[in-house]
Design goal:
Shape: globular
Distance between the termini: 30 Å
Number of helices: 8
Order of helices and strands: HEHEHHEHEHEHEHEEE
Largest sheet: 9 strands, mixed
Number of domains: 1
CATH topology: Dihydrofolate Reductase, subunit A
CATH superfamily: Dihydrofolate Reductase, subunit A
Strand content: 15-25%
Number of strands: 9
Radius of gyration: 17 Å
Structural class: alpha/beta
CATH architecture: 3-Layer(aba) Sandwich
CATH class: Alpha Beta
Bound molecules: NADP nicotinamide-adenine-dinucleotide phosphate
């Protein structure tokens, strides 16, 4: 079991915030098993997710991951919500969904049950009728003409006072953020399993090339290892 207070300290954002990406992977590098991340980690990994969400202003997630992983409204547990309140934050971070298709219903619990108004990050060529429908239940951030301009989106979030960003994937969004030079940190949990198969790695579709990272810490927790790397 992780010590929550120690983890809150260990994962504090650098002064000025930044964009951190959080993933879990198997020992052989798989980001999914049976199409989801669920079997790769353990309970401690879910606790880390709660800690990382507690520290963030906004949790950024791709439409694909939202659908695959069956996201509901982003709501922290009472302990984490209380910690945020005590630290001058809203009890829950905002969820920001990156999507072109906008294939979500305004009645979806992601929006309908959200304790904080979600943000939909899209571009000017996304379906206007869906954009209008979602504008009733979320702030719609349009960045880019026919593809999401992620740098513009991150700048717009910063302008709203959202400088501490946590991206929960998936691999395609991670690849796009990497190509845009926006990834400041990677938090990677190594799960104690070997998976095989042909499932994706944690990054997809990014240009091949070395982006050097520096180890901040490697914390064992049972059979898991929590790795925190910062851009070199
Ligand atoms: N191991 C882990 O920690 C972890 C974490 C997250 C996800 N996953 C797994 O990863 C898989 C999904 O990954 P994926 O690579 O297929 O997809 P993904 O990155 O989750 O999502 C792709 C979809 O998200 C939207 N999207 C992503 N980047 C976008 C961008 N730059 N601009 C506009 N829209 C963007 C689009 O959705 P629209 O159709 O809405 O336009 C796109 O079709 C799932 O199996 C999930 O379980 C694993």
């Amino acid at each position: 079991m992780i010590d929550r207070d120690a983890m809150l300290d260990a994962y504090a954002y650098a002064e000025g915030g930044g964009l951190r990406v959080n993933f879990v992977s198997s020992l052989d590098g798989a980001a999914t098993v049976d199409g989801r991340s669920g079997g790769l980690g353990a309970e401690d990994d879910q606790q880390l997710m709660g800690v990382l969400r507690s520290l963030a202003d906004v949790v950024l997630v791709a439409g694909g991951t939202l659908r695959h992983e069956g996201y509901g409204a982003l709501r922290l547990g009472p302990e984490n919500a209380a910690w945020r309140r005590a630290n001058g934050r809203t009890p829950h971070p905002r969820l920001a969904i990156v999507s072109s298709s906008l294939a979500f219903a305004a009645s979806d619990p992601i929006f309908a049950d959200a304790p904080e108004r979600p943000i939909v990050v899209t571009h000017a060529a996304s379906p206007p009728d869906r954009r209008a429908a979602l504008a009733d239940v979320a702030d719609v951030l349009v960045a880019g003409d026919d593809a999401v301009d992620l740098r513009e989106a991150v700048d717009a979030l910063a302008h709203l006072g959202h400088g501490d960003l946590l991206c929960e994937g998936g691999p395609s969004l991670f690849g796009d953020l990497l190509d845009a030079g926006l990834v400041d940190e990677l938090c990677l949990t190594l799960g104690p399993v070997l998976v095989g198969g042909d499932g994706p790695r944690i990054v997809r579709h990014a240009d091949e090339g070395i982006r050097r990272m520096r180890l901040v810490h490697a914390l064992p927790s049972g059979d898991l290892v929590f790795l925190r790397y910062r851009r070199a």
